[in-house]
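User: Can you fold this complex?
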Amino acid sequence: MHDPYRGLGDFVLNGQADGLHQVFSGPQPEQVAILYRNGYLRACREALQARFPAVASVMGDVEFRKVCSAYVQASPPRQRTLTRYGVDFPDWLSTEDCTQANPGLVDLARLDGAWLDCLFGLDESPLTSLQLNQLIQSGGGFPVSLRLPRNARVVALGCSVFDVWMSIRQGEGGVALPTQPEPGHALFWRPDMTVFSRQLDAWEARFYLSFQATDSLDEAAEHFLPATANDRDGPITLEKYFARLIESGLLIVGD
Amino acid sequence: MSFPEQRPGFHDTVAAGVSLKPQHFEQAMASRLRGIWYEVHPENYLMQGGPRRRGLRQVAADRDISFHGVGASLGGPDLPDADHLKAIRQLVDDIQPVRLSEHAVWSSIDQTYLAELLPLPRTQPVLLNLVAGVDVYQSAMGRTILIENPTNYLTVHSDMDEADFLLEVSDRTGCGLLLDINNLYLSAHNVGIDPKAYIKALPPKKVGEIHIAGFDADPQFGHRLLIDSHASAVADPVWSLLDYALTHLGPKPVLIERDANLPEFSVLEQEVHRAQRMLDRLRELDHA
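Assistant: Here's the predicted assembly.
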């Protein structure tokens, strides 16, 4: 008994037309069935373009289409929605020839992906200084358990592309990607409906990675080590830094 | 198996609606068209949070929303994916749509999602797969769904005609039918079925919703092959076929589907208004 699905499935996935006659009558069904294959490839490409707009912008249409086709072949969608398609695209991209001379593309992809994951992440109400004061004054004391928002993302970068990424996302053209390795980190978080992002110093990266992994501000604080003893408001103390975390909407009262 | 009917909406009259996209959330909430309702593909809202999900929740607070799934692969070789159904159910519980619908197609094989509405051979083994898929979907949602007739671009090897095939699934599962007039018009044009005979074969009580949409000629084959693009205004022959369908079926919720090449919301409202006038006229004739 022939498989009523395999012929069309093989054609959509791989362009193999041999089995189409098992599904469709009439001569040369592949001439029309190409609609389905093109639709599949287009849907995947549009999902990748929506997730990685900076990468698409830097690569240009022709190169991005080529890369998307290769990625779709290597890693077809597994979930029955494309809103998260391409989660492993940055890792895959890092193995491709096109990024050997341009490793910053991989970092752009990581930043694009983190931005979208943060946008689509969990909605949470961050602790405000007013709430903190009320808690303390009502005798509730200092919240014992504080953590980062679940929508926060700490992204490790191989090249210093954060500023370039910001420029691209703001619609500026003609930006050049750095080609020399310069490791760093960026942080994404969403206190309300707008995603915020910034670069992190080395100690801050350790601070946030620890905070995210342990949900413990005490453990994260062990990494508190500002490289500059002073900023415009005087020395950066742990207390001041804590106030900035609240101001930025980066603290959630844990369960 | 028996499931509750679709949930009651804000309005008790049958009305026309339109596909809703995030860029139209504000206008959708502000629309003054009587009874206007909105339909979304739930797959586009399966994120944990963020502005898109919040926007839909806000619209749903005072407008009827219906869900029109595209990813379940109801008639596919495998049963609908359990994780997918769980995610859709969570969204259903959150948004409380008035109706749920899916497509009588397949879109997944070997755990790979093909992101296309692929036609089903209308044979007994495939009928059993579709029945099983609808049963699983309805169980997961805890209510009945509507299944939509596909657009045909090629003639699929089959043992029964499409209307009989879908009605058989409806009889076995308790699901209703979503009659997509544009799909029917294009199928008639592309593979030569009789659209009016198709409509006449459908018992009115089985049809829970009607879709109309725009189509485009295929770039390669021109007008010999019409594509269900949802990227242009509803064409006159589709409006005419809608008129015929409403006369036969009676008033049904009518949706203007638009997924690409989005115009201003007011342009879509004009199409909704036209569909609403047809529904109103039908009611007037009924009362006369």
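The interface with chain B takes residues 3-6, 8-9, 12-13, 22-26, 29, 31-33, 35-36, 39-40, 43-44, 76-83, 119-123, 150-151, 190, 193 of chain A (CB under 8 Å). The longest strand of chain A covers residues 184-189.
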